[in-house]
UniProtKB/TrEMBL annotation:
Keyword Transcription: no
Highest taxon above the source species: Eukaryota
Residue span(s) of domain Methyltransferase type: 3-90
CDD domains: AdoMet_MTases
Entry-linked Gene3D superfamilies: Vaccinia Virus protein VP39 (3.40.50.150)
GO MF annotations, alphabetized: S-adenosylmethionine-dependent methyltransferase activity
Keywords assigned: Methyltransferase, Transferase
InterPro entries linked to this entry: Lys/N-term_MeTrsfase_sf (IPR051419), Methyltransf_11 (IPR013216), SAM-dependent_MTases_sf (IPR029063)
GO annotation terms (biological process): methylation
Designated name of the protein: Methyltransferase type 11 domain-containing protein
Family named by the database record: Belongs to the methyltransferase superfamily.
Entries under SUPFAM superfamilies matching the protein: S-adenosyl-L-methionine-dependent methyltransferases (SSF53335)
């Protein structure tokens, strides 16, 4: 990202060991800042202080915890709090819409969600023997945020990439709720 012109990139992880390893590995890249922090409580940062939040596997790790739905809900509330109005949350996950969209649509969150599905490199390599295949395709979700009933997921190991634009007005954030309470449809 720094090579592409991004100026201020903040990297967080709950593990101080990971933070120190990454800080050492990328010490020559001055645009990178590393902080040990729990994504469920990022009170260090002020409201609406980020244009974009990139999540590459954090949600998946949260969903493996004992308090999975509650922890993920707290994480999303923090992400929404940190994003500026119209900010973008990029969620790269193995979680299909039936598992992730209810979390994204928890009470108080307002997102415009675009879903892209990217097959694994091995699947793309196997398929390249025939006609060229797109690396990634956008999939239009149903009104209730799910894959269309006739959609066939070609590679069951695909990555799901959710591009979530924050629609909430300035100051409006997600509540920390149980995802099963209520969900709004966008």
């Amino acid at each position: 990202m720094a090579k592409d012109g991004y100026e201020d990139i903040v990297n967080i992880d709950i593990s101080s060991v990971v933070i120190e390893q990454m800080r050492e590995k990328h010490k020559e890249i001055t645009q990178l800042t590393y902080m040990q922090m729990d994504i469920r409580d990022m009170g260090f940062f002020g409201d609406e202080s980020f244009d974009c939040v990139l999540d590459k596997g954090t949600m998946d790790a949260m969903m493996c915890a004992d308090d999975a739905p509650h922890g993920a809900s707290k994480m999303l509330a923090e992400v929404a709090r940190l994003l500026m109005p119209h900010g973008v949350y990029l969620l790269i996950t193995y979680g299909a819409p039936k598992e992730r969209v209810p979390l994204l649509n928890q009470s108080g969150c307002s997102w415009s969600i675009a879903l892209y599905i990217m097959p694994t490199p091995g699947y793309l390599l196997r398929m390249s023997e025939g006609a060229p295949q797109p690396i990634m395709e956008e999939v239009t979700l149903t009104d209730d945020g799910q894959l269309p009933p006739d959609y066939v997921l070609k590679d069951p190991e695909s990555h799901f990439i959710y591009v979530c634009h924050k629609l909430a007005e300035k100051g409006a954030n997600c509540r920390d709720t149980d995802p099963g309470e209520t969900a709004n449809s966008n």
